[in-house]
Amino acid sequence: MADVTVSTRLVERFGTLVSIGEGAMGVVFEGYDAKRQCAVAIKMLKTTDAESVRRLQREAAVLSRVQHRNVCGIFELGQTEGKHWIAMPLISGLPLDQAWQGLSLGARIALLIDVCQGVEAAHAAGLIHRDLKPANILVERTASGVLTPVVMDFGIARNERDPAGSLTATGEVVGTPDSMSPEQVVGDRSRIDRRSDVWAIGCLLYRAICDHSPYTGNSAAEVMAQIVTQDAVSPRRYRRSAPSALARVCLQCLEREADRRYPDATAIREDLQRFLDGQPVRARDTGIGFAVRRSWRHNRAAWLIALALSGAIVLVLAGLLRARVEANHREQLAKELGAIQESVRSRMQIAYLSPLHDLRPERDALARLGDSAMLHQVGESAGLRTLARRSSGLSALALGNDEQVVQRMTPLVASGAADAVDRAALAAAHLHLYGSSAARFIDLPTAERDLALAAARSRHLEPARALLAAVGSVVGPEHVQLLLSDGRIDAAQRLLAKLPRQQSAEYSATLLAGELAMAEAADHASHGQRELAQASYRRALARFEQAAVTARSDPHVLDRVCDAAVAALRERISKAAPAPASPLALHPACFDAIVANPDDPISHETLAAAWEAIATNHDLRNERAAMDFALTAAIQHADLAVRRAPRLLGARLIGARARHQQAGRLADDLHAAQAHYDQAIAMLVPLTKEAPGFASAVLLLGQLQAERARQINNHSAGAAASYLPALKSLREARRLRPQDADTINALGLTLVFQFYVLRDDDLAAATAVMQEAIRLLDEVLARSPEDPDSLFGQGANLGDLWGAKANYASDNAAFVAAEPLLDQALDLLARLRRVAPGRADAYSQPIAQLATYAELARARGLPRDRYLAVAQQTAAAAQAAGVKLDHGLLAWWALETAISRAEQQDRAAAAAFRLADQYLRIAEADPDEFYSATRQRLEWVVANLDWRLRTDQAADAVIAQGTRVLKSLLEHPRGANEAIVHCNAGGFHWLLASHGIDSDGVTAVERLAQAEAAFGQCQKLSASYAKRWQAMAERVAAASGAERPPR
User: Fold this and answer.
1) Looking at the predicted structure, is the pLDDT value of residue 537 above 50?
2) Residues 192, 128: contact at Cβ < 8 Å?
3) Is 345 exposed, middle or buried (0-12, 13-18, 19+ CB in 10 A)?
4) Which strand (E) or helix (H) includes residue 30?
5) Residue ranges of the alpha helices (H) in 65-170?
6) Are 652 and 684 in contact (CB under 8 A)?
7) How distant is the alpha carbon of residue 834 from its chain centre?
């Protein structure tokens, strides 16, 4: 394929662009127009030369003038970064000669009538198409099964109303040889008119009758020479059963003299309609046959007398001749059918072994060849029909069209006419289809995989088992694949070793060895044996890469290389090693598979899985922009795979998980996050219906429910009951997967969410919930003490439990008594940094815990320098490890350090305030951190102003800054309702009032009233959290003479 670079702006407009075709002038991509909410085809020029650009612009002008259901219109003409393109509706159909395979002659004629109507519309607009051929007529099938042909590609159309506007010079040959009229062949532009399209319609009608063009040759030159020197022979020469009336219509279209053809497409359409209606056509008679038949109808008695005299002799000779002819016919046809099957198989194998390229042209051509065998299903003996079905079925298997294999060979098996080869081939197709469904679930335990794939097992695996049982003692690669599908890895390995060399020839044995290694790796992974899993994935990758060295264009092999690379990445993700920039960086095979077959949904599902794994890797390293990009790409490829193959359960699971991650990034936008959750759940619903009891789907559903409830609780009053649906789903997931670490972690995390809601109202109940979460993770850590996710989860849980106990401690002694819990948490997180030094949360979590300690200790007047020093050391370790941390988090720690230094009248306070200021400035510049950073800025203002006023430093700039920040927060819909904003506002007003400072037109007395009102709103905070401002609020109350009831 030509190197056509797709611009970023075009991707932003139309999403991920997938090449779906290539012509002489340009490449056609599939995209999605969000404005029109529909799929589109984008035709982009390969070059920027003036003639090509004029042609594209002219095609757009042409299409804009034709509005008809049988003509592909245009949406827009554009130019992006020097590349010229037009966007059109995406016609999801097959070329005419493929779409009508298997249809009756009458149904084919009905399609041609619709084609004529489209050509009529073009003619009415003054346009001559000049290149009507099957490839330029796509046939769509509606939901109700109605076929609609659409005329495409007016790139070389001619305006008969403005001949001078043509972009082809006299003598230039334009068109496709076997569909060109004589005047097009000789390049006589002056004689090209509507009747040139009439000739092309005649060629289409010829194909409808005979399944080949009226003119054939070994080269384009030979075909064109025949067109200008020879009359087309009657289609009845090739298809004796063809109706003579239809042959007359066809030959009148194909008159070499344009004056003897139909005048336009309307006349052809009317004659074809007469044929379908059983009425006489108006096409001229083409020989003496018409006169003989007319004499027979009018003088039947005379004809009978004459025929009777010779009848007896003729019958005897005819009988002998017929038997001989039929025997020769059967023998010849059997040879032809065998040759078709072998030709498809060998030529497809050559294509797979060739250097990487787009297989579609070869596959399409070989598919037509294989499909031609099905034409012998009508009018032949039962034996020949069996041979025809076998030939077409085995051809489809060679092409990888497994659904066609099942469709064509299942009746053969049901009729009892199938042999062992047929059964093995049908079993192989069923196993391929089952493998496509199972690929995303291979790492599940056998029992759970069976639940997830129950429908696929019934539809494909069990029929394959029955077919192979009927094969008898003959054993082949299909038996190895069946054992792998059953999870019987050792038995599969033994059987593969016993296969005769010829049965594991080429690269199939290497592929099977790779599948064995993948199965072993999945088994290790499902038991938490990650090191063993990694080794097996590396072995699988090596095997698949070995096969890909030979099969450079086999999409299945390339997909499996990518699958192994993705699986290996998933196993090492938890250690947060640097993430690959894209699937191409992960392994070139991930994109090579798309090059080899851009239409393959499995390849898009594999790419979606690769992007999802990369996004998870970026998430653990806190690389937000890269993660967002990867998630968007994962969703696009998953959606594309589901559109093309709705039964791909893995693509649905990936799409739901990626949307789950995206929703988690929208903490400040409740409505946008809820939309992502809803879309993710919608992706899961068909999956849960197809595979009830599938633990991964139940787990993801529970996670979605938990995150949804958490986000709602973050934006409104908490309700512990809101987590009950999530807990129900997650407990069910654990019942299905009692030892699975991910499931236990998710259940524990949801209990933590519930703990957050309970702790303010019922600390005892909250503590019981958190202790259950801790017990769950203790189980995981007992089995896998170095598991990074479990180390993080338990460190976070212990820190949260410490935070609750410290927050609600009745006195300082109780506060200090809770510190061992914090120390345990910090210990686990330190272990996490040793195991996975690249994980951002291994640094951010302990810094957050230590900053929380500093806040709580400050409210109690207790020292906190020891823990602040640990936070500083952790931040330095993150920087040394190249781990990026949120600047808002670093500002929090720096601010607590500054306040501590200020209380001790330490000169280092100024530097600490400056450091916090620097972090906040960076955070405020990040749209994702802006609101939370602005809220922190107000805390910084209050602390910095307090320090400056106590040390007699200039404070005007800080006061002005505080006024601006407070105004911004109170105008924000979230800030106006957040009690913590009002708490800090009260602190700001009190400092100004207590020092008698009038500012911004507000007197100190008025400031006192504002402080009083703000602390009134502050009381909406939980009692434990409001303690941070209790002393200041009491001073405000005393100064204003108001009393506040104790909380």
Assistant:
1) yes
2) yes
3) middle
4) strand 26-33
5) 96-99, 105-124
6) yes
7) 36
CA-closest candidate to residue 60, choices 35, 79, 47? 79
pTM of the complete model beyond 0.85 = no
- Pick from 324, 253, 239, 241: nearest CA to 283: 253
> Alpha-carbon distance 618 to 590, whole Å?
19
Residue-level pLDDT at 374: 64
Say whether pLDDT at 947 is over 50.
yes
- The C-alpha atoms of residue 780 and residue 782 are separated, in whole angstroms, by 5
Check pLDDT > 50 for residue 901. yes
pLDDT per residue as tens digits for the range 1016-1041: 888 877 666 677 787 888 888 888 76
| CATH 1.10.510.10 for domain 95-158+177-285 | yes
Q: Position of tokens 């500093």? A: 854
Measured in degrees and rounded to the nearest 5, phi and psi for residue 159 equal -90, 110
Q: Which of 136-150, 246-260, 302-316 has the lowest mean pLDDT?
A: 302-316
Task: Classify domain 1-90 at the CATH superfamily level.
Answer: Phosphorylase Kinase; domain 1 (3.30.200.20)
480, amino acid identity? V
**Neighbouring C-beta atoms of residue 951, cutoff 10 Å:** 12
Q: What is the rounded CA–CA span in Å between residue 510 and residue 967?
A: 69
Handedness of CA 834, 835, 837, 840 (dihedral sign): negative
Q: Are strands 76-80 and 38-45 parallel, antiparallel or unpaired?
A: unpaired
Calpha distance 908→561 (Å, rounded)? 57
Q: What is 413-458 written as a DSSP string?
A: HHTT---HHHHHHHHHHHHHHHHHHHGGGTTS-HHHHHHHTHHHII
Token look-up 């390339």 returns 558
φ and ψ of 79, to 5 deg: -140, 125
Please state, in angstroms and as integers, the Cα–Cα distance from residue 650 to each residue in 120, 647, 683, 690, following that order. Answer: 46, 9, 11, 12
Separation between Cα atoms, residue 345 and residue 358, nearest integer Å: 18
Q: Given a cut of 80, is residue 993 above it in pLDDT?
A: yes
The string of pLDDT tens digits covering residues 704-748 is 888 888 877 776 655 777 888 889 989 988 888 888 888 888 898
Are the C-beta atoms of 134 and 96 separated by less than 8 Å? yes
Q: How far is CA 303 from CA 314, 318, 512, 753, in A?
A: 15, 19, 71, 98
pLDDT at 1042: 46
State how beta strands 76-80 and 83-89 pair. Answer: antiparallel
Query: What are the CB-based long-range contacts (under 8 Å, 24+) for 1-10?
Result: 1/27, 1/357, 1/358, 1/595, 2/27, 2/46, 4/44, 4/46, 4/83, 5/83, 6/44, 7/80, 7/81, 7/83, 9/80, 9/81, 10/42, 10/80, 10/81, 10/83, 10/85
Strand partners, 80: 83
Report pLDDT digits (tens) over 275-303.
888 888 999 876 544 434 434 443 455 44
Q: Please give the structure tokens belonging to residue 202.
A: 């005649």
Q: What is the pLDDT of residue 295?
A: 42
Question: Three-class SS of residue 818?
Answer: coil
Tokens of 769: 């919930």
Helix count and strand count (H, E) for the chain:
46, 10
In whole angstroms, what is the distance from residue 282 CA to residue 36 CA? 45
Nearest alpha-carbon partner for 832 in 822, 846, 819 = 846
Backbone torsions φ then ψ of 211, nearest 5 degrees: 65, 25
Contact predicate 355/553, CB 8 Å: yes
841 is written with which tokens? 């949360």
Residue given tokens 């080269």 in the structure block: 219
